C-alpha cells in the first residue's frame, strides 16, 4: 500500500503505510528504509535520518539504507567517521555509480580531496559521465588546487540542461576563476 500511495504522489499516506509495515515487521529494514525515503521526499530530513539509523540497525547490510544515511550524514555535517563506514559498506555490498559517488562525497566532506577525486574518476571510467559525478569531481579537483582542470570539469557538468546542482557549479566556477 505504501508503494501504491508513493506512486500516486500521496506522501503522507505512503509514510503512514510504511510506518505501519515497519511496526508489523520490525526486523524488516526495507520498510524502515522506504519510510525514510518518503520522509526525505517530504522534506523531513531529520525524520529520514532517524528512520535510516533504525534501518541500518535492523539490517546493517542494506546498501540503500547505508548509502542514504552516509550521504545525509556527510551532507549535514554529521558523524563523518560513521558516514565513511556506511558508505564503504554500501559500496562493497552494492558496487555501482550511486554508492561510489556517495563514497567519494564522504571523502570530500572529510577533506580528503585526493581520495575523493580518485573515486570520482574511477566511477566515471566505470559507469560513465554524469553531471553529478563531474560536479563532484570538479569540487575535489578544486580542493586539490587543480583550478583550471576543476573549472573545465565543472563546465562539462553544466552541459546537461537538467543538472540540479547547476547553480552551485556556477558559483564554484566563479570562485575558482578568481584564483587564476
Characteristics:
single chain; 180 residues; mainly alpha; 11 helices
Characterise the protein shown here:
The protein has 11 helices and no strands. The longest helix is centred in the middle third of the chain and has 15 residues. The mean pLDDT is 94.
Topology:
Blueprint: H1 2-7, H2 11-24, H3 29-41, H4 45-58, H5 63-75, H6 80-93, H7 97-109, H8 113-127, H9 131-144, H10 147-157, H11 166-177
Helix pairs in contact: 2-3, 3-4, 4-5, 5-6, 5-7, 6-7, 7-8, 7-9, 8-9, 9-10, 10-11
Count every helix, treating DSSP H or I runs of 4 or more residues as helices.
11
Q: Taking Cα atoms only, what radius of gyration do you get, to the nearest Å? A: 18 Å
**What's the average pLDDT?**
94
Please bin the fraction of helical residues: over 70%
Structural class by helix and strand composition: mainly alpha
Shape: elongated
Query: What is the string of SSEs from the N terminus onward?
Result: HHHHHHHHHHH
How much of the sequence lies in strands comes to under 5%
The rounded distance between the terminal residues' Cα atoms is 55 Å
Amino acid at each position: 500500500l505504501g508503494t501504491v500511495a508513493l506512486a500516486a504522489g500521496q506522501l503522507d499516506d505512503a509514510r503512514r503505510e510504511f510506518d505501519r509495515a515497519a511496526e508489523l515487521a520490525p526486523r524488516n529494514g526495507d520498510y524502515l528504509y522506504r519510510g525514510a525515503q518518503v520522509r526525505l521526499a517530504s522534506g523531513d530530513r531529520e525524520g529520514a535520518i532517524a528512520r535510516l539509523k533504525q534501518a541500518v540497525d535492523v539490517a546493517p547490510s542494506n546498501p540503500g539504507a547505508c548509502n542514504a544515511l552516509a550521504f545525509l550524514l556527510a551532507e549535514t555535517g554529521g558523524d563523518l567517521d560513521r558516514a565513511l563506514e556506511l558508505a564503504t559498506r554500501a559500496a562493497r555490498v552494492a558496487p555501482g555509480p550511486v554508492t561510489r559517488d556517495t563514497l567519494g562525497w564522504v571523502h570530500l566532506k572529510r577533506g580528503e580531496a585526493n581520495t575523493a577525486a580518485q573515486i570520482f574518476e574511477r566511477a566515471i571510467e566505470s559507469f560513465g559521465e554524469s553531471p553529478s559525478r563531474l560536479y563532484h569531481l570538479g569540487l575535489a579537483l578544486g580542493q586539490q588546487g587543480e583550478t583550471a582542470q576543476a573549472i573545465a570539469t565543472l563546465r562539462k557538468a553544466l552541459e546537461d540542461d537538467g543538472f540540479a546542482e547547476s547553480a552551485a557549479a556556477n558559483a564554484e566556477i566563479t570562485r575558482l576563476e578568481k584564483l587564476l
